[in-house]
Amino acid sequence: MAKRKQSMYPLAFQLGTLGKTRSQLQVTDKTWTMALCRYMKDKYVYFCEGWPEIAEGNLLKQGDICIFECVPRWTNVLLKVTVIREC
């Protein structure tokens, strides 16, 4: 799988803040710390820190599908992820 430094996601994941937001991403029973970034005119947020480690640690490959569930919390955002492997 080619490593991308940024992946785009709908703006609602970051709850309207600008800049960098520390977040957690949970895949099955493991939680990873990462950061979501949004820049001034962007309509999307990006995984700007932590994604390569998450992809590698979960053996993600091209063709795998990740379903993200956004769970807002007082201190940060939790993204629960379900991975559907390519057959």
Automatic annotation (TrEMBL):
The keyword Transcription applies. Residues 1-87 form the TF-B3 domain. The keyword Nucleus applies. GO terms for cellular component: nucleus. PROSITE patterns: B3 (PS50863). It comes from Linum tenue. It holds the Pfam family B3. This is TF-B3 domain-containing protein. It is found in: Nucleus. One of its GO terms (molecular function) is DNA binding. Keywords: DNA-binding, Nucleus, Transcription, Transcription regulation.
